Amino acid sequence: MNNYEYCVPTDIRFGEGQIECLRKEIGKYGRRVLLVYGGGSIMRTGLYDKVYEVLEDYDIFELPGIEPNPKLSSVKKGADFCKANKIDVVLAVGGGSVIDASKHIACATFYDGDPWDLVLNKKLVTKALPIFVVLTISATGSEMNPGAVISNEATKEKLEINHPLLYPTLSVCDPTYMYTLPTKQTAAGTADIFSHILEQYFQPNDGAYITDRLSEAALKTCIKYGPIAIANPDDYEARSNLMWTGSIALNHLFTFGKGGAWSVHPIEHELSAFYDLTHGVGLAILTPAWMRYVLCDVTVKRFAMYARNVWDVEEADDYYAAVAGIDLTERFFKDMGLPGTLSEVGINDSQFVEMASEAVRTSGLSTRAYVKLYASDVEQIYRDCL
Ligand code: NZQ
Ligand code: ZN
Predict the structure, then answer these.
(1) 243 and 14 Cβ atoms separated by less than 8 Å
(2) Atom of ligand 1 nearest to the CA of 196
(3) pTM summary value
(4) Which of 24, 26, 94, 156 can pair with 98 through a Cys bridge, CB separation 3.0 to 4.6 Å?
């Protein structure tokens, strides 16, 4: 195993009714709260009223309208508001988009220049407001990690800002809040969780046995409970297993002792930057194509291990086992109702060259990925998805 530093300071409050803890916990940091939320789902589900009930003794200010694939303009608006109104705490109620925007707002509040500078140079992050979270969709793991992915509308860049100050202070993870999710979002969220685990599983280091076995258990959990949550949206067992899997899938537990750069996420981020595609949908389309592209004599052993340990493939030949595992991965996404091609989501080849070069320029794809990929490789993977 590689040397590794591991410190996750987020206080997780998991389970039904845990939102009540905010009444006391937020007060440790102040009374002036910026409530950040998305396009209105929290109004329809009743969560908005619940937040006001729990925080009746607080001064609540609002930043509504955070977009899926959150935009820099929303971050600027939020940071300006926090500066002008002496906000003590940012409270994100929503999914990854709302949480990520809140994280960026929390640190941009203490920076006088353009918040995008912080994305390009994390050394400029010096301080952040405490970030509290009420999670409403399992997908990104943002509730328990220090990352935030923000889209710059002007430059069409979608990049991550990652800094220890951006770990949420406390996250309420109540599985019942996911009962209202549209089927597409449950499926896309599950695909995102699945992809996070795969990105860490497919790394060069073979010595992190414990990490690989934990990862396989988490992948199996998605395979078991994703379809159940889609068929029965208010199945508590399914929602709770997915919720915890989503959190640990990206709090770096599954990178422990490993390392390297991710492969499919940078390729996907260009799709959502250029086309505003739902992140998990892009991952579901790209993942099987990436797997087929990088399957070779060097990678076949790990792909066969994945097929046998995650999908219970019994084939003795490594190569056939690997192909069976990839086919089953593709089937899993399709069975959850996710599209299998870029054509199905209205994307053609017109921007592939630019997207491929951006994906490589802004990531470790060509330097530290499981299989190093250059712009021509990424372009071919996009084409394989048409
Ligand atoms: O905006 P509202 O009205 O709230 O509706 C949202 C949104 O339309 C809806 N929704 C969420 N919870 C709901 C609900 N609808 C009904 N009932 C509920 N309980 O679902 C839609 C999607 O929400 P969003 O927050 O965009 O989803 P997700 O959590 O998948 O976040 C996606 C964003 O996170 C980034 C992605 O790139 C994308 O921008 N990521 C963040 C990461 C991180 N911070 O670590 C890592 C990921 O790999 C990812 O890149
Ligand atoms: Zn993701």
Answers:
(1) yes
(2) 48
(3) 0.97
(4) 94
